[in-house]
Amino acid sequence: xxxxxxxxxxxxxxxxxxxxxxxxxxxxxxxxxxxxxxxxxxxxxxxxxxxxxxxxxxxxxxxxxxxxxxxxxxxxxxxxxxxxxxxxxxxxxxxxxxxxxxxxxxxxxxxxxxxxxxxxxxxxxxxxxxxxxxxxxxxxxx
Length: 142
Ligand code: HEC
Description:
By secondary structure, this protein is mainly α. It has helices at 4-24, 29-38, 41-45, 66-74, 98-109, 122-133. It has a single domain (4-111), classed as Cytochrome Bc1 Complex, Chain D, domain 2, CATH 1.10.760. 49% of the residues lie in helices and 0% in strands. The relative contact order is 0.14.
């Protein structure tokens, strides 16, 4: 029979291992991309994080670390609307596992919003030139 002290020690080390393994999981951005698309994140945040509420380029304080991010996903219990709503929903552990949350975190952190300069988009330059030639520029004097 194990002594109570040894029993407690074993339990403590088991818990330490569990905590350690939970923290040691490094999210996989490729799996995260699947989560992002299958859970509809793209519908509000855009395919590359440049949607209505942008996520690319690490713009959000919520992305400061994994703990804050996962807490944000989980604790929006007031966001399970009955009627259609475009607020950020709550993603409980039954919808999104901790591993999936860390995967999507890794994916979001890999998003880069790096649009080309207007003058580097040939079609756009052609349109602007045509508008100028037709006198449709925004010069108020004509
Ligand atoms: C129905 C629309 C909608 C969906 C779907 C959605 N979000 Fe959001 N999300 C929002 C809105 C709106 C906000 C901004 C404000 C708020 O509600 O906190 C937001 C905020 C966030 C933020 C913080 C951004 C900031 O401005 O600081 C993160 C991170 C985020 N969402 C991640 C996700 C992830 C990951 C998913 C999918 C698992 C997801 N969202 C799905 C609408 C959505």
